[in-house]
Structure formats: structure tokens, C-alpha cells
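User: what does the whole thing look like in 3D?
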Amino acid sequence: MSLARWLDFLYPPSCGLCRTPLRDGRYLCPPCRDGLPRIEKPYCIQCGEQIEGIVADDVLCSQCRGLEFAFDFARAAASAQGPARELMHAYKYGRQVHLHRELALLAEEVWDDPRVSAQCDPPWILVPVPLHWRRQRWRWFNQSHEIARILAKRRKLRCEQALRRVRHTDQQTLLNRTERLANLRGAFRLSRRQRRVQSLRNKPVLLVDDVFTTGSTAEECARVLIEEGGAEKVVVLTVLRG
Ligand SMILES: [Zn+2]
Ligand SMILES: [Zn+2]
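Assistant: Here's the predicted 3D structure for the full assembly of 242 residues, as C-alpha cells:
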């Protein structure tokens, strides 16, 4: 018996949310998968926020009106509420690393958006939002890289750790957008390898992260990817929208 089979035998795979035993190699049961609060049309064409009510397709939410962004637009698969929030919490803070595939499969649903799926020539390059090494050591892994890696494999795209986080910033929950942006200025740089190989030059980049909240992290990463990396454009793809 292989080690993986032994581990399955000792720790039978079960649903990450309701604990129902599973045998199909998945870590979410079908009802829990269906119960995740998907973001469906209408949503803001800039930040991907779900918009209530009946509105035209090309709509900007009230927060995005009058703002300029370095990235083209952001899309998230689900809202960071209820079971989706619980799942991400178990993954990030409960160190349930095996949940990364379920989160990547959820993020992949964004390929329903023609603005994402139509980009083929040249194809997207996936770039994960980096963690500061201190935080990564504490968490053991970078959730965005794990998700980007699986997505890249499934969509047959390249994944490059083109950014590094050079400065650790404190929790930003109490700051507004302008303060967050000022606080993040200079927190990200191109990786040393990317500086050398310049492989993002004139390429479309999908910036991958776990959660999009105010978009200030995405904004700062996109700015570095375009200004320093020469990316043609940056689109933000996250599993959840906070
Ligand atoms: Zn379940
Ligand atoms: Zn918006």
C-alpha cells in the first residue's frame, strides 16, 4: 500500500465543511460545493462586487465610480460569506493544506467570464500575490501560490512567482483605501529572477490571490507588474470577494 493510501486509511478524507466521509478524492461534498455563495451577474465590471437588483450588464459599483485602477478589472468566484468564508479560514488558519484544490476549482469557475477565457494569444501568465517570508514561515505555505499553481496546471498556463514582498505591513482592517495604498507603497518588488528574465514583458498577467477586499494589494501588485515588469495588462483573479 502506498503512503498516500495509508494516510487515506488512517485519516479518511471527509468534506472540509460538513465532515461527510468522501471517497472520490475531493474534500468538499456536492451539496457543500453547491452551497458556496457564487458571484453571478450583475457584478461590477471593475471590482467584481455583486450588485443587487436589475441593472445593465456594463455597470460600475458606487465605490469604483471616479477611481482609477492599475489593473483592468477584478473577478472573484464567490462572496467571502458563510460557508465560503469558513472554508477559506480552515484552509489558511487551520492549515488544512489539502483544501487548496477545492479552492482552485472554485476560482476556475471565473473562466465563464469571456474577458478571462478569450485571452489566448498570448496566453495569461499567472502570478501569485506573495507573502512576506516571515508570514509564510508561520503559515508553512503561500495560499495564493498553491491556488495559482493548480489553476495553471489545469488551464495549461504558466505560473511565475514574479513578485516578492519586501515589506511586512500590519493588518490594514482599520484603514481606508487611500491609507491602505499609502501603507502598501513599496511593499512589493519584482523577484530577482523576474528582473533578470523579464518574461512578463508585453504579456497579459492574471494576478492570483485568495481574497479581494478593498483591492489595495491588487492595485500595488498590478502597478509593479506593469511599471517594473512591463506587463501588457493585469487582471485580478481571486477565490473570494470580501
Ligand atoms: Zn459537505
Ligand atoms: Zn466596483
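In plain terms: The longest helix spans residues 143-155. The chain has a mean pLDDT of 91.
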